[in-house]
Every structure is written in C-alpha cells, then in structure tokens.
C-alpha cells in the first residue's frame, strides 16, 4: 500500500493538483487512504446524497417516483446540460429528473428534486448513514448565486483571476456543500450493500449511477469492456471530483472517491480530469494485489 500511496501522490503532483482520495474494497473492507478525512467541496457530487434521499423517501412511502413534475423554462437553475440548457417547458417524473441529474449532472433537475424533498431531508439521510463530515448548505442554484456574487461585476470573465477564485465561498468547505472522501466511499458501499435503501431502491440507484455519460475522469482509469464503472462527477472553478464504484468480472467491487484542486483557473483541466482515473486505478490495483 505504501508504494501505491507514493505513486498516487506523485500522479497528483505531476497533474498539478492537490488530491484527496479514499478507496475501499466493499466486501473485505481493505482500504487505501490519501487524505480521506480532509473536508472537501462536493460540487455536483452532492447530487448522490440527494439521489439516495429521494429513494429513501420513496421506500418510506413519502413520494412516488413516477410523480409528474412541471418544469417551466422560467426560473430554472442554470447549467450546460439537461433541462438547464433547454428552452421549452417539459413535464417529467421524479425518477426521470433523477436520471438527468445523475447522467448529465443537470442542475435544474437537481433543484426541482430538492424543491420536492428539501435540504433538511438530505442532511437527515447523510446523518442517518453516519456521514458526519457531510452536509448540504444550499441548493445548486444558491451555490451558483454565491459564485456570481463573489465574482463581482466582472462576471464569469473574472473567474480567470486567481485572486477572485480564492474568495469564492463555493470553494470553501466550511461555507458550502461539503464531505470527505471517506464519507463518500461509505455512502457508496452502503448503496452497493443495500444498506442505504431497500434492495429495490438500491438497485435503482446503482442503475442510474451506471448511466453517467462522462468517461474522462474515473472511468478513464479502467478502459476494459468487462469492468463496470458507476459514478458521479463534480466540477467548480479549480475543482474536479468524482466518486464511484468499480466492479470487476471476478466479483471484486471497490468504492473510490477522488477530489482535486488546482491553482490553474482555466475552464478546461484535462490533466486534472485524467489524474482522477489514474489515481483510482492505482488505488484499486493496490487493493486487488495479493497481500
């Protein structure tokens, strides 16, 4: 494990990021810790907590996942994907909103779901599961509003200035939605062991996580047809994250959480994206190696 940690830290350094990682064998409990208990900004990774809450409430009979929701164009939370990028009204079920939220990280879909279940319910769910380092402070629309306010009159263009980025509340775990890598792998392991929800709802959560379309982070470390990766990304200025589960054909299954920060303020961060897959592969290989 020591050699793997050395290689992971070297990979983070080569990519120009500060990285935090936790990986765990879901069945044996063997783990690898590279800053696993450090507070991190979750960004859209927190949508996983919302998804689990939604299914927990459905299992308890508080809502029906086929319930239809009107999605008018007015007042939608901004974003580059899904409903957030669409121009016309729509009507979708709660479970289809959840699909958009997880597969393409649709902010508008996420906030429609939050309007249905509430932030307090999300925090009750994470507390019930023992995720003591995890807390939702605001909706995704509110998170984006803090960035706009903190950026000042220069708007989005000012986010290229490191001094502006340094003052963003959205990048301070003490003032935004936050967790730790260990909490996120604990949540994923609970989902895969059907401890977070009933087996029926656990299967539905796993299905949606497996439909994420982004292959450039966690999945890039496992380019094999017979290895399945299910996960959720998260992105903010200088932040690139992903948490997920890697399943091998021999039955091995590994929860991995990787959170990165870089000093570079460019919108495109291919090295930061790629090192998530690299670090995850190093961690999983170490867990799979004979001890």
From TrEMBL:
Pfam families: Beta-lactamase2
GO molecular function terms attached to this record: hydrolase activity
Gene3D superfamilies xrefs: DD-peptidase/beta-lactamase superfamily
Record keywords, A-Z: Hydrolase
Signal peptide: none
PANTHER family: BETA-LACTAMASE, BETA-LACTAMASE-TYPE TRANSPEPTIDASE FOLD CONTAINING PROTEIN
Designated name of the protein: Serine hydrolase
Organism: Streptomyces coeruleorubidus
């Amino acid at each position: 494990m020591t050699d793997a940690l050395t290689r992971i830290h070297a990979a983070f350094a080569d990519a120009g990021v500060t990285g935090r990682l936790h990986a765990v064998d879901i069945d044996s409990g063997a783990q690898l810790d590279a800053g696993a208990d450090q507070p991190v900004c979750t960004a859209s990774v927190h949508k996983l907590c919302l998804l689990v809450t939604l299914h927990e409430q459905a299992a308890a009979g508080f809502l029906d996942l086929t319930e239809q929701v009107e999605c008018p164009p007015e007042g939608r939370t901004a974003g580059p994907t899904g409903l957030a990028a669409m121009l016309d009204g729509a009507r979708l079920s709660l479970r289809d909103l959840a699909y958009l939220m997880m597969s393409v990280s649709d902010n508008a879909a996420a906030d429609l779901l939050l309007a249905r279940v509430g932030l307090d319910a999300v925090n009750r769910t994470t507390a019930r599961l023992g995720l003591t380092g995890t807390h939702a402070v605001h909706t995704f629309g509110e998170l984006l509003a803090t960035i706009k306010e903190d950026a000042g009159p220069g708007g989005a263009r000012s986010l290229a200035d490191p001094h502006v980025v340094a003052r963003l509340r959205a990048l301070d775990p003490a003032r935004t939605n936050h967790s730790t890598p260990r909490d996120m792998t604990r949540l994923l392991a609970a989902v895969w062991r059907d401890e977070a929800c009933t087996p029926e709802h656990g299967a539905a959560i796993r299905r949606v996580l497996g439909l994420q379309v982004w292959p450039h982070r966690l999945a890039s470390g496992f380019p094999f047809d017979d290895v399945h990766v299910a996960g959720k990304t998260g992105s903010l200025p200088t932040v690139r994250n992903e948490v997920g589960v890697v399943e091998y054909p021999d039955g091995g299954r590994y929860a991995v959480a990787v959170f990165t920060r870089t000093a570079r303020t460019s919108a495109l961060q291919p090295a930061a994206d790629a090192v998530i897959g690299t670090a995850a592969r190093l961690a999983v290989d170490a867990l799979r190696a004979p001890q």
